[in-house]
Write a structure and sequence with these properties.
By secondary structure, the protein is an alpha/beta fold. The chain has one domain. It contains seven helices and eleven strands. A hairpin with a 2-residue loop joins β6 and β7.
Length: about 230
């Protein structure tokens, strides 16, 4: 059984998660081919090697057209189900988006199907979540565990205006998972990253010191956003 261990000591986001698996050896050509089956247009992905201090890692980039429609959960589900992807990829992707919709509905006092995926539902979020699920499938990951998750502080700007950080939806998704506040202000864990953990991961218990590991690193675009993935 393959176990993926996430160590989000400075936060986690969807693009960071995909980047960590690319750093581990998931071919971006395979990712691009699989994502091309989804009925969405005007996007491109790429990756690059970067340095953060003394360490090297991988960045994952998603580029798409500026005009993207607001989508409901049912719209996102139809896109994912139409891609003819492996069953486990479809199930994991829909699970993550469902958790995200439930969290947003809870904090806004609305129904799940009334939630508009404006920022998180754009093409980049679909690619991040489905891409991460494809990476798990590529490495035949049966179980995902996470250590303590670093979350930001202060305020952030979004479609709803100025809100506290971590965002209420992010905090709802992280319920039951170990967190720690980051030093300094800014968002280190995004709603998409939190949704991936809520849907797929369990808190770390026990000791991995005796397990053979392959490390991979994915620095975030902000100075404090980094995520490391290790495989047993």
């Amino acid at each position: 059984m393959t176990v993926a261990f996430l160590e989000p000591f400075a936060g986690i986001a969807g693009d960071m998660t995909v980047a960590a698996f690319l750093d581990l050896g998931f071919p971006i050509e395979a990712l691009r081919e699989s994502l091309s089956r989804l009925p969405i247009d005007d996007w491109e992905i790429s990756s690059e090697r970067v340095m953060r201090g003394a360490f090297t890692g991988t960045h994952f980039h998603v580029r798409h057209g500026e005009e993207q429609p607001h989508r409901h959960l049912s719209d996102v589900r139809r896109i994912i189900e139409a891609g003819q992807l492996p069953d486990r990829v479809v199930a994991r992707s829909i699970d993550a988006f469902t958790r995200l919709a439930e969290a947003e509905a809870g904090v806004h006092g609305s129904d799940v199907e009334q939630v508009h995926f404006h920022e998180v539902g754009a093409v980049d979020a679909i690619i991040d979540i489905v891409g991460a699920a494809l990476a798990l499938e590529h490495f035949d990951v049966a179980e995902l565990v996470t250590s303590e998750i670093r979350v930001g502080t202060g305020e952030i700007e979004c479609a709803h205006g100025t809100i506290p950080c971590p965002a209420p939806g992010t905090l709802a998704l992280l319920e039951g998972l170990p967190i720690r506040l980051a030093e300094g202000e800014g968002e280190t864990t995004t709603p998409t990253g939190a949704a991936l953990l809520k849907a797929w991961a369990r808190p770390l218990a026990g000791d991995f010191a005796s397990v053979r590991r392959r490390p991979a690193t994915a620095p975030g675009r902000a100075r404090r956003r980094r995520c490391r993935t290790c495989f047993a």
